[in-house]
Write a structure and sequence with these properties.
alpha/beta, eight-stranded mixed sheet, 11 helices, 8 strands, hydrolase, triacylglycerol lipase activity, AB_hydrolase, AB_hydrolase_1
């Protein structure tokens, strides 16, 4: 897989494509802290073999995409004492700019966690560019998360993670174990390899906090989502400690006709055991988009 760069919405984005450009376009948007490689290579190849032209990219402030320099001031931003460096709407426009760069008039959109919020924003602002929406491990409003979130996660989310390789792997492994579910296997070796690759591509603790500020200051999308008229699937795990499954139910209730798939045992991660749910949902959505 070869990395490419595109300038969309004034931001340089690093992206990769997998599969034939003649297939159904599928844009994957990952969440906070992650990079394009966090969409598993095997999953992407499987999606391509199922007839999709897969596009995965680094959000701004992630991996090899453009990083901003504005100090994050996370607490002041959360208290509305200062504005965030950018918004989820800006990040949705980044994704749209990538589709423009690739001359794709409309695509199936899949977003995970913060990526699900960005995908929702994209569908709301540009519904004619979205063939279907898949919102994974996400919510229509960040403030609905905290009501049932495992509070022991907060130190992992709010701290400024080390930038040296050993420190990054140590703290990230601890966080990802906490986010995953004890009911499904945790791939220790695979996760460690992923983190090494991520560190080599570039990590940015301030960038993560800028993304978090965008999440925390985003408006509630619940009422707006009720206006959507497109195929939508909501995927969520029963044991998500960060974004409670109630958030998925709220998303599915808000989007007319949305299909809710609650995956037994899954936490705030997307293990191979859950991939069939995504594939099945995408095929159903693709049929609905015809």
């Amino acid at each position: 897989m070869t990395e490419h760069f595109a300038t969309g919405n004034g931001i340089s984005l690093c992206y990769e494509t997998i599969g034939s450009p003649g297939n159904r376009p599928l844009l994957l948007i990952f969440g906070m802290y992650g990079q394009l490689i966090w969409w598993d290579d095997v999953l992407c190849r499987q999606l391509a073999s199922e007839g999709f032209f897969v596009i995965r990219f680094d959000n701004r402030d992630s991996g090899r995409s453009q990083h901003l320099t504005t100090p994050p001031h996370l607490l002041r931003t959360a208290l509305r004492l200062t504005r965030p460096a950018y918004t989820l709407t800006d990040m949705a426009e980044d994704a749209l700019g990538l589709l423009d760069h690739l001359h794709i008039p409309a695509a199936h959109i899949v977003g995970a966690s913060m990526g699900g919020m960005i995908a929702q924003e994209l569908a709301l602002r540009h519904p004619h560019r979205v063939l279907s929406l898949t919102s994974m491990m996400s919510t229509p409003h960040a403030l609905t998360i905290g009501r049932r979130t495992d509070l022991t996660l907060l130190p992992y989310l709010l701290r400024r993670h080390p930038t040296d390789l050993d420190g990054y792997i140590r703290t990230s492994m601890a966080m990802l174990r906490k986010l995953s579910s004890p009911h499904l296997p945790f791939d220790e070796n695979g996760t460690r390899t992923l983190l090494r690759r991520s560190h080599a591509r570039g990590i940015d603790p301030d960038g993560t906090h800028r993304q978090m500020a965008a999440v925390l200051t985003a408006a509630d999308r619940t009422k707006a989502l009720k206006k959507l008229r497109l195929p939508a699937t909501v995927l969520h795990g029963t044991h998500d400690p960060l974004v409670p499954v109630a958030c998925a139910r709220a998303t599915a209730r808000a989007i007319p006709g949305a299909r809710l798939r609650v995956i037994p045992g899954m936490g705030h991660h997307f293990p191979p055991e859950a991939w069939p749910h995504l594939l099945d949902g995408l095929h159903t959505a693709a049929q609905g988009a015809l």
